[in-house]
Amino acid sequence: MSRSEVQHPSVTLKLSGMVAEVQPDRFVPGSFELVVDGTPQSHVNIDNPDELFFEYVQRIGHVIDLLGDVGEPITAVHLGAGALTLPRYVEATRPGSRQQVVEIESDLIDFVRAELPWDKRANLRVRHGDAREVLAKLPAGLHGTTDLVVVDIFSGARTPAHVTSREFYELARPLLSPRGVLVVNVADGPGLAFARAQAATLSAVFPHVIGLAETQVLKGRRFGNIVLVATLTAVDLTWVPRLLAGGPHPAKVVEGAEPAAVHGERARDDGCDGDAVPAARPHGVPDRQLSRSTTGPACGPAEAGIPSCPEVSRLCRGSPVHRRPSAGTGPVAFSAERASALRLRLGARHPRLRAAPGLSC
Questions:
Q1: How many domains does the chain divide into?
Q2: Domain containing residue 187
Q3: Are 99 and 122 in contact (CB under 8 A)?
Q4: pLDDT by residue (tens digit) across 256-280?
């Protein structure tokens, strides 16, 4: 039987009609991908849940690492579940953390629980329903005490408009503790119209917003993921070099203190419900499909790059793979040997990464 004919565990999701499948990672024992309608959604290493694979997930992992002291338990709310990659990561790196996960596809949670079970010791509660509706009903005890809110919500290939608006983020803001961060995964292509609108909307609700992404994505030259981080207090300046040094590379951080520079023409739009729009659709990807990998299909020349964004640190090059931090350090990389092997693995899937240089930061 050929590899394409191998039968993997699967389920047809009742709400969307999409087929979810769990496939083993051929390169790393103990690792699996959750694939929905033929597109990878999540990557989970059951044996080492502190290993993060997708680029944008690694960047979110770096942000999580910088919250409080290394290993300190946190309170987290995850809007959008997938295979629970980040909740597993939080539990592995910060045992005892209190976590809430919200997912609208109830049978997806049941499927993942059966095929890719998470640590039973984890203090993790799953809530079923639309993220915005559930967000408005979360217990009062989470208000002002939540250290991390992750927004990673898609329907088909796009983020629905009702979870991109100012009113939606105003529901999330009261959850944050004084040190808390709200992290949003934004998928966009050339021109970055949706990403800029999201940055502007977040800036209308939160006083501090930064963006993390691969350099060419931030320049609007190809489709990919931008991680937006919003906080109630100013981001510690020591975060920036550590976020960049952690990779993946090449990487860039832009700071949202100057809306006219960072958000371009969409900065004047506060993103209320009446103005909110769904995310851009990847070029050539049907609405029923979604790619969460930051190495998405190229979309041709940029319509416009980000206009003179204020850089807050230097550009690094390399391709580290994110691992759990050790005490007294920020995000760290694998050993050179393992990083090299995993770069080859990335290259097998994504030819543009085959020549990625080693860590040089």
A1: 1
A2: 3-353
A3: yes
A4: 543 323 444 444 456 676 555 555 5
